């Protein structure tokens, strides 16, 4: 469903995302969706269906609930959709914090392997690249990073690398100490986490273009630097209804 070059209904499995520049558009489309799903023996989950207002104006969308087909849907300031955190302020910082939290949990789950003396350093690095890094970088192709966020990501990576490489010996006193950043850079010459994110972002537009006109959605979906440069920045006040469809 496309209007003015913008997809207004995005569906993945049983998760549906309905977009609109005002509340009237998603309400109308949501009503049509509810009617169509009922004919197929499906129904929306009222408990899992929420709506969120994304706007540069903090006073936009003051109403607290939306009623569709005698069902009231709650307004939220934050919503997790397909593993990505959507916020009313359209802030990528919240998404990065969520990904780092998941990355820390993943790192903790394999901590015994990262610190084990039975495994080689190369094998531990492979664990980091194949198990931990994908959790942190989920959806990173759409991120625009500030210096603060780049620093937070690098701090996380240094923390993991220190677990992998352990401690170092002081040349003067001979005492064991934590490795300096320069030493970690020498031990781990591969591209750092920020460089990986930027390289993936550069590949993503080409991938979208090659998808073809019937599948690609770049245009107004490509966010501005002012708003954090997120794909969720529609450039206008955005009303989004997120719905879960299930069988009756």
Q: Quote the average pLDDT.
A: 76
Order of helices and strands: EEEEHEEEEEEHHHHEEHHE
Described by the principal axes of the CA atoms, the overall outline is elongated
Structural class: alpha+beta
The DSSP helix count reads 7
The total strand number stands at 13
Can you walk through the features of this model?
The strands form four sheets. Strands 3, 4, 5, 6, 7, 8 and 13 form a seven-stranded mixed β-sheet that branches. A two-stranded antiparallel sheet has the order 1-2. Strands 9-10 form a two-stranded antiparallel sheet. The protein is elongated. Strand 3 (9-12) and strand 4 (15-20) form a beta hairpin. 40% of the residues lie in helices and 22% in strands. The chain has seven helices and 13 strands. The chain is α+β, with helices and mostly antiparallel strands. It has two domains: 2-87 and 233-247, no CATH class; 92-205, no CATH class. Mean pLDDT is 76; it is low at 216-239. It has helices at residues 24-39, 92-109, 111-114, 121-136, 147-165, 181-187, 193-210; strands spanning 2-3, 6-7, 9-12, 15-20, 42-44, 50-54, 65-68, 71-75, 78-81, 84-87, 167-169, 176-178, 238-247.
Descriptors:
about 250 residues, alpha+beta, seven-stranded mixed β-sheet, two-stranded antiparallel sheet, 13 strands
Tell me briefly what this model is.
The chain is an alpha+beta fold. It is built from 7 helices and 13 strands. Strands 3, 4, 5, 6, 7, 8 and 13 form a 7-stranded mixed beta sheet that branches. A two-stranded antiparallel ribbon has the order 1-2. It has a two-stranded antiparallel ribbon with strand order 9-10.
């Amino acid at each position: 469903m496309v209007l003015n070059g913008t997809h207004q209904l995005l569906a993945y499995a049983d998760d549906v995302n309905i977009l609109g520049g005002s509340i009237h558009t998603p309400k109308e489309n949501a009503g049509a969706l509810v009617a169509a799903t009922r004919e197929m023996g499906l129904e929306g989950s009222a408990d899992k269906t929420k709506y969120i207002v994304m706007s540069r104006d903090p006073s936009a969308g003051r109403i607290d609930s939306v009623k569709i087909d005698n069902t009231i849907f709650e307004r939220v300031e934050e919503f997790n959709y397909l593993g990505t955190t959507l916020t009313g302020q359209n802030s990528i910082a919240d998404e990065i914090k969520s990904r780092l939290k998941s990355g820390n949990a993943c790192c903790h789950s394999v901590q015994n392997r990262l610190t084990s003396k039975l495994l080689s350093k190369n094998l531990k690095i492979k664990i980091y690249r194949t198990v931990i890094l994908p959790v942190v970088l989920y959806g990173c192709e759409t991120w625009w990073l500030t210096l603060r966020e780049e620093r937070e990501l690098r701090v996380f990576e240094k923390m993991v690398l220190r677990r992998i490489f352990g401690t170092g010996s002081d040349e003067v006193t001979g005492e064991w100490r934590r490795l300096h950043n320069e030493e970690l850079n020498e031990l781990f010459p591969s591209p750092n986490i920020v460089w990986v994110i930027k390289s993936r972002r550069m590949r993503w537009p080409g991938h979208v273009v090659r998808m073809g006109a019937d599948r690609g959605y770049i245009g107004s979906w490509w966010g501005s630097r002012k708003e954090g440069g997120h794909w969720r920045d529609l450039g206008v006040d955005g009303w989004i209804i997120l719905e879960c469809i299930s069988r009756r």
